[in-house]
Design goal:
The complex is a heterodimer of chains A (113) and B (113). Chain A is mostly beta strands. Chain A has no helices and 11 strands. Chain A is globular. The chains are: A mainly beta (113), B mainly beta (113).
């Protein structure tokens, strides 16, 4: 069990650019979640997958955001035309079948200049 | 609907003294409740969970929490604080059948040597 991994750990981009983040869940965890955490706040839910199906999206996930989980393994989160308000920590979590708790990765910190 | 209120944004205790971090929750159904800890530049780590079994829950590193339905509370305690306990602590709720976790705004715990 190597834990949830995320790449990159840090990303600095200019406003208007597109960025993509990757999350590798713990193996055999069929559920995968994305959260966003801004400074001084708790993480907020963005979306989740059960296997390859995206089953729920938060209102926070604007049209500029898209997430995929091809083949039910790793997931990517893309932000198009980034804005300064997108600056945050993006967290990925996974959950095994039958469990209630989620296991979090170290996050990707995005800074939009 | 589900929500969490962490009653203190910052708690300071002396090393070796008890720790109490307070959390009240709101949930429409039988909730699952969690405490997560976040050390600087580290990912969120699960401390303990309540999922409708015993109301007194023991977690890692000597932490405990008690589920009190009548008070809608889930306070986190530890008998004796250690310097390594300094971190941000999040109380988290999830309704049965709801995939997303709802986080409180966090309590920063400072340990005074």
């Amino acid at each position: 069990d190597t834990g949830v991994s995320q790449d990159p750990r840090h990303k600095i981009t200019k406003r208007g650019q597109n960025v993509t983040f990757r999350c590798d869940p713990i193996s055999e965890h069929n559920r995968l979640y994305w959260y966003r955490q801004t400074l001084g706040q708790g993480p907020e839910f963005l979306t989740y997958f059960q296997n390859e199906a995206q089953l729920e999206k938060s209102r926070l996930l604007s049209d500029r955001f898209s997430a995929e989980r091809p083949k039910g393994s790793f997931s990517t989160l893309e932000i198009q035309r980034t804005e300064q308000g997108d600056s945050a920590m993006y967290l990925c979590a996974s959950r095994p079948p039958g469990a209630y708790e989620q296991y979090f990765g170290p996050g990707t910190r995005l800074t939009v200049t | 609907a589900q929500s969490v209120t962490q009653l203190d944004s910052h708690v300071s205790v002396s090393e070796g003294t008890p720790v109490l971090l307070r959390c009240n929750y709101s949930s429409s159904y039988s909730p699952s409740l969690f405490w997560y800890v976040q050390h600087p530049n580290k990912g969120l780590q699960l401390l303990l969970k309540y999922t409708s079994a015993a109301t007194l829950v023991k977690g890692i590193n000597g932490f405990e929490a008690e589920f009190k339905k009548s008070e809608t509370s889930f306070h986190l305690t530890k008998p004796s604080a250690h310097m390594s306990d300094a971190a941000e602590y999040f109380c988290v709720v999830s309704n049965f059948g709801n995939e997303k976790l709802t986080f409180g705004t966090g309590t920063r715990l400072t340990i005074i040597p």
